[in-house]
Write a structure and sequence with these properties.
The complex is a heterodimer of chains A (363) and B (338).
Chain A (H helix, E strand, L loop, with lengths): L9 H14 L4 E7 H9 L2 H4 L4 E8 L7 H11 L4 E5 L13 H6 L3 E4 L3 H10 L4 E6 L6 H14 L4 E5 L4 H11 L6 E4 L1 H7 L5 H6 L4 E3 L4 H17 L4 E3 L11 H10 E8 L3 E10 L8 H4 L15 H5 L31 H8 L5
Helix pairs in contact in A: 1-11, 2-15, 7-12
Chain B lengths: L17 H15 L2 H4 L12 E9 L5 E2 L2 E2 H14 L4 E12 L4 H18 L2 E10 L7 E11 L15 E4 L5 H7 L19 H10 L5 E3 L5 H13 L2 E5 L7 H10 L13 E4 L4 H10 L7 E7 L6 E4 L5 E4 L12
Parallel strand pairs in B: 4-5, 9-12
Antiparallel strand pairs in B: 1-6, 2-3, 4-6, 7-10, 7-11, 8-10, 9-11, 12-13
Helix pairs in contact in B: 1-4, 3-4, 3-6, 6-9
The chains are: A alpha/beta (363), B alpha+beta (338).
Chain lengths: 363, 338
Amino acid sequence: MKFIDEFRRSELAQGLVRRIRQNSTKKARLMEFCGGHTVTILKHGIRQLLPPTIEMLSGPGCPVCVTDNADLDKAIALAQIPGVILTTFGDMLKVPGSRSSLQKARADGADVRIVYSTIDALQIAQENPDKRVAFLGIGFETTAPTIAASVLQAEQEGISNYYVLSLHKLCPPVIKALLDSGEVRLDGLICPGHVSAIIGSRPWEFIARDYSIPCVVSGFEPLDVLQSVDMLVAQIESGRSEVEIAYRRGVRPEGNRQALALMERVFEVCPARWRGMGLVAHSGLRLKPEFERFDAEFAFEINPGPVVEPKGCLCGDILRGVKTPQDCRLFAKVCTPESPVGPCMVSSEGSCAAYYLYGAAGE
Amino acid sequence: MEPLVSDKILLAHGSGGKLAHELIEKSFLRAFYNPLLAKLDDSATFDFSGRLAFTTDSYVVNPIFFPGGNIGKLAVCGTVNDLAMAGAVPLYLSLSFIIEEGLPQEDLLHIVSSVKEAAEEAEVQIITGDTKVVNRGTADKLFLNTAGVGLVPEGVDISGSKAKPGDKVLLSGTIGDHGIAVLSQREGLSFSTKLQSDCAPLNKLVADIIKVSPQIHCLRDPTRGGLATTLNELAKQSKVGIKIEEDKIPVREEVQAACEMLGFDPLYVANEGKLVAIVAPEDAEAVLKAMRKNTYGKDAAVIGEVRQEHPGRVVMKTRLGASRIVDMLVGDLLPRIC
């Protein structure tokens, strides 16, 4: 079908695979930052097609997975406040916090509603003037602009019972933190396509320049990923390190100016807690003081209680790329999509869920 | 059908009193008329000889009307298909209504006429039933239950445990049509599509298959959980591996597009008018031909084969030529689609 089949064509894929195999002589560890890329790679069996010189590592690019337990607890506690309707993207429902999950809180009587966009959340606020409606703002630069727009709309239309719990995270600072930690050595980075559609390719330039790591911004279809690997191999083999865009149909170097302006208008950069990485400077977004009245952190007294980390769960290490799901003793035994211990097994973009669902078949 | 006195269904319609009789006589009995039902005794009685297949299913689909069908058509087709998957010729159905007070009479009559049409197409008779009306809020508009009996022809022995290495896996048509058609009507998620549910009675398709391959090994309709879940069930029950090929599985453009948009995999999306047949390799060609001649099997394809390796698992050759595991559906993809 149009725009799907074109990017899954077998003969084109075979051609790219042949070229990668021919050109790749140096050992290379490539990280796909984004959970969406991990899913594409496993779902289509791309790892099996790559030569032994290339190792693929999954990165921290799953917004659900990197949400820290302290923040999850906060969201759950917010949902439990009487008179609150918590609206959220569906992915967050099953993620276990220290003691509960939004799904369990809902079963215990909390009003938690899945929405597909902030427009739905605003509508719920308008329809329930006697309730306070909070939106759980999880996501990267991709979702932040629409949430910024919802705050502006609430202001404009005088919707005074709408709040945002902003747990947004920014991608380039966390890559920097990852590289500075020295834990992971990378020879190439597949940069997230949808995040880059908003921020452009320029925010990745410091990686190529300061760390000499080749970067390619990739789309999410199998041919996109193969083309990105091919472009990374070409850079590695010729000793270049640049930021290139394989996802030209979605990404421009300067990004989406309108979306960036919306973010800038409503949010300011702050430190953020990442699962497995702790507090990372300049990697979060909070509402600017002038929008404080929409900020759930200010509007509510949220008492989440002490944080408990799940025992034996390696999600943090997996998100940093230092361990793979198979290294985890809980993987596929104690921790499964039906009864997840860590968030990487819950999210549709989580590494553990992708390994569990699509694990390469022993032929 | 003659209109009822009230334009809404009231609690009294389920009370067994006058309004209940009016509902039964003016609506149900006229629509489904047959001598066994017309006796209106507490039980329908009939003579029977041979091997019997017996099944039941409840229908709680939301919304009750969807493109290509409604809960009434679904309640007939679902149970007819469960009988057909045992190779049985469906004969009689029971039909029970649990109605939420306030359901528009017009909706109920529309659904009753769909039940009638579907039953006529499948050549089954509704010979007993029940009606309950519950307070507003204690059911969602309308729930249906049907049970069915059918006759298994002599010599036919179909079971999910009979797949053997070397067998071919056939699929009767495109996957995911029902789940996506229903989903497209959901509140908060409405998107426009011309897609129709594939909801259909498959008993005649099964009869066509059995005619050319009486020894057919397995038949199953991939409803909830989709094709992936059905193939996993068959692999586990038969203790064999199943290998399928991604590019052999027919998927409509609209379904593919909706799945991409919503983050679903068509392999897990429900069908209500498709079947998977596992047949001996020498029968595969004849079965495929027979399926394609039937309206409900015109897009049929051989999608894979049964293997000795990886027992209990389903493996798919991807379009890129790699292979991956296809697991059962975990969790709930689309709640209440049937």
